[in-house]
Specification:
heterotrimer, A alpha/beta (508), B mainly alpha (314), C mainly alpha (349), A: Rossmann fold, Rossmann fold, six-stranded mixed sheet, 18 helices, B: mainly alpha, ABC_transp_permease (chain B), transmembrane transporter activity (chain B), cell membrane (chain B)
């Protein structure tokens, strides 16, 4: 290793009872790419936020080029040459690319922005690293991949020597991700040092020189990429051996839900384009795709919150008009929304209220809420689904993500629904909770529930789904049987490359 | 139709347009500056009232007119500081905080006024700003008396609109304000302190509102009476939306609005007895509502408007 | 300095907050009184005497509290569903003029038992209509209802002014712009003789209880709260957002309109443009002081009424402008906002 350009020494950070970073040290050499590997909640993002001055560490320090960085000052981090590419882009959609890049780079009291010079500098950087983007485009009009480029350009424009990327591939297709990693390697060759945060073993192995594994807020291992393998990393990352459940073979029953040429237009944009699928009792149909390709609309359509504009939807063989939420719930459709906090639960309301809000007709008489029955129902869910951290009257916000998801699963599954629409059911959960959620989904499948699993996690879909369809730009591919799927093939499908004619025989 | 033409052809109308527009220009610019940084300031109605009162009071007690404006600006800034404390530091509802500031500022102005100025049959007056003829230009036929015989604050207000447009779109400070109003997290990631930017914008914007109020007592009229602001603050809030958060358009919007207003005032005198005068008085408010309905969906709202910013909380 | 969300809010703190807020506002008002050169403690005392010192003043305070309970409820119901109805003042006036018009022109001949309920419905309906306009603008054009309801207040008062200056003008009023009086059968019965205290207080208090029950026990109440707390979550749970907001607007506008109706039928008998000393705006403070709790609204309205009636008396005897009441009420709103914040957050390093 060459001399260290960055040294993180013995950093600790506590939030309430949670020790998010426990004595973590890390160093980074010039021209090196280090991957910070860990599950959700392992402390990766906290560590990087400390590095970038968003948080003040309780103890420990950060040295850049041998000099200590004052803590809690993003500006100092920028001056020291640290650039951060956030997972949720820190961009202003209504401003142009150039404005986003320039903001904060000049003294606020200059009488005039140096736009012309900034434009020259930006185009120089673009050329050097092969990152093309139109400087006068409004950022909100750019694709997700282009927006990420703007994030990287922002850092490079600030003369960053150290670049930190938080889950950079979360929103990219495989192809875009490959292109990104090629760019990162190019940057490393140019002498930049990079840290990227990830929980994906493949990309860590493919792109990093060195891998640091975090678990439960502690650094558990550090390996050179050439001297480790995926199996070892997986074990280090998860710690205990937790086997995720895998579906066992079964024969699906009758068709319960069918879409034929369904299109949905929202605010003038066609979000779903003539999609077809068929869902049978006792099977899991996986819809795989990079987020932002119409999954949300598909989930909303089947959950009864948006209507369709063309095509036909058949529920148990009967055509349904525009499904409302009450009809969907009444017909035995369980619904797990992709965003727990935004849609799945109302944080300021009690657990019992969130348990019954979507099935109030059942828990009310003459317009009055039957509190006793509702609280009892919530109690049942808490017991049966092992929801920890609250009783029925507790405010739902106080539950952890995993327990909130168990509550949402519970209120849907406790009634043995005939259909379950599960959108990103394990997103953002720690490994233990993921296993619990997967087990519940497979249990429902065994009990004859038809499960539509919308996910962007290849591993999840391959473990759970009987058949798989890819969603790209509002279109659904034809289904392929899980047996004939592998990561490469699904990756291609997620990039929109599928052969409609060829796959038909496989699926049926 | 000839009535309409007669009115439009009188230089007096156009002179009145600029006069009526001035407090609206200042108030709208103030509200716009606050909102560009992400803070809705419904304190405007009260801040304008207080500015009108305190500016007048200063002059009544012997200060010169410009000092009166300065005092109004400072007091506006202080109320801005209060609003920023509530909405930026504490992150409280901008709606309710703003209304609180308005209720407080207006009742406080009445209190101070009543306390210091004894009740009298006719309200005491001061010597307000006098129109200044712009050399050369004011002697032009029609255009001269229409546009170039205004009081100094009116010229200043027009200049301020152009200056603010320059600051917002051409300077690093303006970019920082816009960035904060669009995405304070992004601003912070670029080393801008969003809290400081919002404090600055709200204090400066509120100072403009104070001056806008003071124009009423120091130039348009010569005395202060309660409820004299008459919803002008709320109209300014509507004008900001109408102007799509652009100072140049705010200037045009305020002028357009004042044109309607002074036109209806003249129409009112011609049609008195035929149409109840209250109908004419309703027009400004209805016009504001119509402007909002027209523009609300088209305008590009600052994305972080009304969203409190807390570090580390998304 | 940073703020950290409190995991648990203690009930004592929640109850203590409005009390502390009021005390804080009174202390600040005391500073203003002291600056005016008057003895502060005596001023407080005079306020209390002015509000409760005699049978007359006590009934007057309760009379003042009645419309404040209703406008406070109107704001509380709307705010809880995140419908920012700041138009209580306009709805109050529209309710008042509707009652005066209906009773003097249409229903005057009906017996009290029929006329009074009809008039109450009329007043409420007028308030509802005025609030449905901004709600429609919000749902149809995404116009922020704060500004439109505020602007409509001015329109409503001008509309009333126009009517009482023309078709509804009382010819017996020596040229003053005031409406024709309501019929005798429309006058609300007094609760106490030789006072202005009328049936409206009972109606307002009962409505507070009713609103509380609706909010805490009914499907609609739960849905409205969900819609206010998290619209996306409410939609996902099948809450009809538009319909819920319309219902909320009907309750809110109806309560404010009713306040105006009761004031005409119980106190003044006719409409002028100074019928309300800002009941609509004070209602917002009342609602916030009550932390949007309908039962709390009754207490908060009482406090506000005490300030207004008491300050009137104090002002006459001590030469302090009675605007000190408005200042105190506004300050209590600001302290309450700050206080509520600290029940939810704590300061951390």
């Amino acid at each position: 290793m060459t001399e260290a350009v960055l040294d993180i020494r013995n950093v600790c950070k506590r939030f309430g009872d949670n020790l998010a970073n426990d004595d973590i040290s890390l160093s980074l050499g010039k021209g090196e790419i280090v991957a910070l590997l860990g599950e959700n909640g392992a402390g990766k993002t906290t560590l990087m936020s400390i590095l970038f001055g968003h948080y003040v560490p309780d103890t420990g320090k950060v040295l850049v080029g041998g000099r200590e960085l004052p803590s809690g000052k993003p500006r100092a981090a920028i001056r020291a040459g640290i650039g951060m590419v956030h997972q949720h882009f820190s961009l202003a959609p209504n401003l142009t690319v150039l404005e986003n890049v320039m903001a904060g780079t000049e003294s606020l009291w200059h009488f005039r922005s140096g736009t012309a010079a900034a434009r020259r500098k930006l185009s120089g950087i673009c050329q050097r690293f092969g990152l093309t983007v139109e400087p006068d485009a409004r950022v909100g009009d750019l694709s997700v991949g282009e927006q990420q480029r703007v994030e990287i350009l922002k850092a490079l424009y600030n003369d960053a020597r150290i670049l930190v990327l938080d889950e950079p591939t979360a929103v990219l297709t495989n192809l875009e991700a490959e292109r990104l990693f090629a760019t990162l390697k190019e940057m490393a060759r140019e002498g930049l040092s990079l840290i990227f945060i990830s929980h994906k073993l493949d990309e860590v192995m493919a792109a990093a020189d060195r891998i640091v594994v975090l678990r439960g807020g502690r650094k558990v291992a550090e390996r050179l990429a050439e001297k480790t393998n995926k199996a070892e990393l997986a074990e280090l990352m998860v710690g205990r051996k937790l086997a995720r459940p895998v579906r066992e073979p079964s024969t699906p029953g009758e068709e319960v839900l069918k879409a034929a040429g369904v299109s949905v237009i929202i605010d003038g944009v066609e979000r779903l384009k003539s999609v077809d699928f068929s869902l049978r009792a006792g099977e899991v149909l996986g819809i795989i795709g990079v987020s932002g390709n119409g999954q949300t609309t598909l989930a909303h359509l089947l959950s009864g919150t948006v209507g369709r504009d063309r095509g036909e939807l058949l529920l148990f063989g009967q055509p349904v008009g525009d499904l409302t939420v009450d009809e969907a719930v009444g017909a035995g459709i369980g619904r797990i929304p992709e965003d727990r906090n935004e849609e799945g639960a109302i944080g300021e309301m009690a657990i019992w209220e969130n348990a019954v809000l979507e099935r109030l007709p059942r828990f009310s008489r003459h317009g009055l809420v039957d509190r006793q029955a509702a609280q009892a129902f919530a109690g049942e869910i808490i017991d049966a689904f092992d929801v920890r951290g609250g009783r029925p009257p507790t405010r739902t916000r106080l539950l952890s993500g995993g327990n909130m998801q168990k509550l949402i699963l519970g209120r849907n599954l406790i009634d043995r629904p005939r259909i379950l629409i599960a959108a990103q059911p394990a997103r953002g959960l720690d490994e233990g909770a993921v296993v619990a959620v997967h087990a519940r989904l497979l249990e429902a499948r065994r009990a004859g529930t038809a499960v539509l699993l919308i996910s962007e996690d290849l591993e999840e879909v391959m473990a759970l789904a009987d058949r798989i369809q890819a969603i790209v730009n509002g279109r659904l591919s034809l289904p392929i049987a899980a047996e004939s799927a592998d990561a490469t093939k699904l990756g291609l499908m997620m990039a929109g490359e599928w052969n409609d004619e060829h796959e038909v025989s496989h699926a049926l | 139709m000839s009535v309409v033409f007669d009115i439009l052809a009188s230089a007096g109308l156009w002179a009145a347009v600029l006069r009526i527009a001035t407090p609206l220009i200042l108030g709208t610019l103030g509200a716009l500056l606050c909102e560009r940084s992400g803070v809705l300031n419904l304190g405007i109605e009260g801040i304008m009232t207080f500015g009108a009162m305190i500016g007048w009071l200063a002059v009544y007690n012997g200060a010169d007119l410009w000092t009166g404006l300065l005092v109004a600006a400072l007091s506006g800034g202080v109320f801005g500081l209060l609003h920023a404390g509530l909405t930026v530091t504490l992150g409280l509802s901008q709606h309710v905080s703003g209304l609180g500031v308005t209720l407080f500022a207006s009742s406080f102005s009445y209190y101070v006024f009543r306390l210091l100025v004894p009740v009298a049959g006719t309200p005491p007056t001061i010597e307000p700003f006098q129109p200044i003829d712009v050399p050369m230009l004011s002697s032009l036929p029609f255009v001269g008396p229409a546009l170039f015989t205004q009081t100094p604050p009116t010229y200043a207000a027009i200049f301020l609109a152009l200056a603010l447009a320059y600051v917002i779109f051409r300077t690093p400070l303006g970019l920082a304000i816009r960035m904060t109003g669009e995405n304070p997290h992004a601003a912070e990631a670029q080393g801008i302190n969003p809290m400081a930017v919002r404090y600055g914008a709200v204090v400066a914007g509120s100072a403009l509102m104070g001056v806008g109020g003071a124009f009423l007592t120091l130039s348009a009229f010569n005395s202060f009476f309660p409820t004299m602001v008459q919803g002008r603050g709320w109209i300014c809030i509507a004008l900001v939306v109408f102007a799509s958060w652009r100072p140049g358009r705010a200037l045009l919007g305020a002028l357009l609005f004042a044109l309607f207003d002074s036109f209806q005032l003249r129409l009112q005198t011609r049609l008195s007895g035929v149409v109840p005068y209250q109908i004419f008085l309703m027009i400004p408010y209805l016009l504001s509502i119509a402007a909002l309905a027209l523009m609300a969906r088209r305008a590009r709202v600052p994305q972080a408007l009304m969203q409190p910013y807390r570090r580390g909380e998304r | 300095m940073r703020f950290e969300r409190r995991e648990h809010r203690s009930l004592a703190l929640v109850i203590a907050t409005p009390v502390l807020a009021v005390l804080c506002a009174l202390a600040l008002a005391g500073v203003l009184i002291a600056i005016a050169g008057a003895p502060v403690m005596e001023a407080y005392w005079r306020i209390l005497v002015g509000a409760f010192g005699s049978r007359l003043s006590a009934t007057e305070t309760l009379t003042r509290a009645s419309p404040l309970i209703l406008t406070g409820l109107a704001a509380a119901v709307a705010f809880r569903a995140r419908l920012w109805n700041i138009g209580g003042e306009g709805q109050f006036y529209l309710g008042a003029i509707a009652v005066a018009a209906a009773s003097s022109q249409l229903l005057g001949g009906l017996p009290a038992a029929v006329q009074i309920p009809l008039l109450l419905v009329t007043g409420a309906a007028a308030g509802i209509v005025l609030l449905l306009v901004p709600l429609w603008l919000r749902l149809r054009f995404s116009v922020d209802e704060v500004v439109t309801t505020l602007l409509l207040n001015f329109v409503a008062v001008l509309f009333v002014s126009m009517l009482i200056d023309s078709i509804l003008k009382d010819p017996m009023a020596f040229g003053w712009p005031q409406s024709q009086p309501v019929a005798d059968a429309a006058v609300l019965p007094k609760l106490l003789s030789r006072s202005r205290l009328h049936l409206g207080l009972i109606i307002a208090a009962m409505l507070a209880v009713l609103v509380h029950l609706v909010q805490s026990r009914t499907v609609f109440g739960m849905q409205a709260r969900a819609a206010g707390l998290n619209p996306a979550g409410a939609v996902f749970a099948g809450v009809p957002l538009g319909r819920t907001l319309v219902t909320v607007a009907c309750i809110s506008g109806g309560l404010a309109g009713l306040a105006g109706a009761l004031e005409v039928m119980g106190v003044q008998g006719y409409v002028t443009t100074d019928l309300s000393p800002g009941y609509g705006y004070s209602g917002i403070v009342v609602a916030m002081l009550a932390n949007l709790n309908p039962l709390g609204v009754v207490l908060a309205a009482l406090f506000t009424a005490v300030m207004f009636v008491g300050a009137d008396g104090m002002s006459r005897s001590m030469g302090i402008p009675s605007y000190i009441a408005d200042v105190t009420v506004a300050l209590s709103l600001i302290s309450m906002l700050t206080g509520v914040f600290f029940t939810q957050y704590r300061i951390s390093r």
